[in-house]
Amino acid sequence: MLQIKNLQAGIEDKPILKGIDLTVNGGEVHAIMGPNGSGKSTLASVLAGRDGFDVTGGEALYNDNDLLDLAPEERAREGVFLAFQYPVEIPGVNSAYFLRSAVNAVRKHRGEEELDAMNFLKAVKVKMKELGLGEDFLKRPVNAGFSGGEKKRNEILQMTMLDPRLAILDETDSGLDIDALRIVADGVNRLRRDDNAQVVITHYQRLLDHIVPDFVHVLHDGRIIKSGDKSLALELEEKGYDWLIKEAA
Amino acid sequence: MGNKCGAHTFPYIEAKNKSAKVEHEATTSKIGEDQIFYCNQRGLETQDAVNMIVNGFCKEVFRELPMEFAMEAQKLLDVSLEGSVG
Q1: Number of domains in chain A
Q2: ipTM for this prediction
């Protein structure tokens, strides 16, 4: 599904990613961990096509096509979803309108019929209930005045409705209490299928108790310095990153 | 008016409300790039995103206006947004 080869990217002249290799297949969950400033969020931004990051080398293939060549909205419609670390507020735009526009943009691209207001509401209400979001939520402006937990649950709601092939979750667990963490993790787990994949960026092993990864990668200074299975996350929790960084040096 | 005229704009805003979010047309930068990227990442075209964001922002303002001004302002906005931003 996703093949990243020797990807190098940075902001202005400052290199951040210094050669990332990563292959993600359908049905897999990959966790990316690493100390602050190691390039985790940059990787997510580059894959989603955020402005301001320059790709200086390597490539990223998504279903055998050049992902980096597509505009951000084309990537989204092709099924790449980024759950934002800091979901953006859009005052005055109600959540139902926003989400229905997004869902229909993606459906149109897939050649599916657009959802009318009735059918959209029916579908979204089921998902909202699963995520513990009250009905007034739809009338509120996108993320404006939401608590941290509500914003993150909104990301998962959008993800659920858009049904992406490749979901990248950028520190979706940060700022969540234990109950919200479980709700968010359950939401992600419900999506897991053989024809989609999740890349979960996190600082904490705690999330990986709920979303059990097939692979764990440690990012440091723009490179993956270690990959393993879920036991690697447990080892990191116990020993920190220093031993790995020394090993890699 | 002939070809020896010019228009000079002196951007100046006096805000008496500490929480006000104001920018003068002449000094304003693009509307929130993060907001546009967020919309793009959800599959929306940039033009649609801009319309949505500007409309939303203005709606918050129009809410404070008397009804007839609000309607007039909304109509003006609909007209002026067509193909003007991108």
Answers
A1: 1
A2: 0.94
Of B33, B44, B57, the CB nearest to A105: B44
Domain carrying residue A120: 2-248
Strands A90-94 and A141-142, sheet pairing: antiparallel
Would an 8 Å CB–CB cutoff place B43 in contact with chain A?
A: yes
The per-residue b/e assignment along A7-46, b for 16 or more CB within 10 angstroms, e otherwise, is bbbbeeeebbbbebebebeeebbbbbbbbeebbbbbbbbb
Does A98 touch chain B if contact means CB atoms closer than 8 Å? yes
- Read off the pLDDT of residues A73-102 as tens digits, 9 standing for 90 and up: 999 999 999 999 999 999 999 999 999 999
Q: In this structure, what token pair is assigned to residue A185?
A: 């993790």
The predicted structure's pLDDT at residue A115: 94
Task: With CB atoms and an 8 Å threshold, state whether B37 touches A51.
Answer: yes
User: pTM for the complete prediction?
Assistant: 0.86
Tens digits of residue pLDDT in A134-169: 889 999 999 999 988 899 999 999 999 999 999 999
| Nearest C-alpha in A relative to B51 | A93
Closest CA of chain B from A201, distance in Å: 18
Whether chain B has a CB inside 8 Å of the CB on A88: the answer is yes
CB contact under 8 A, A50 and B46: no
Which residues of B fall within a CB distance of 8 Å from A170?
none
Handedness of CA A145, A147, A150, A156 (dihedral sign): positive
Contacts of A210 (CB under 8 A, 6+ apart): A181, A182, A185, A186, A189
Helix, coil or strand: residue B11: coil
A233: amino acid identity, one letter:
A
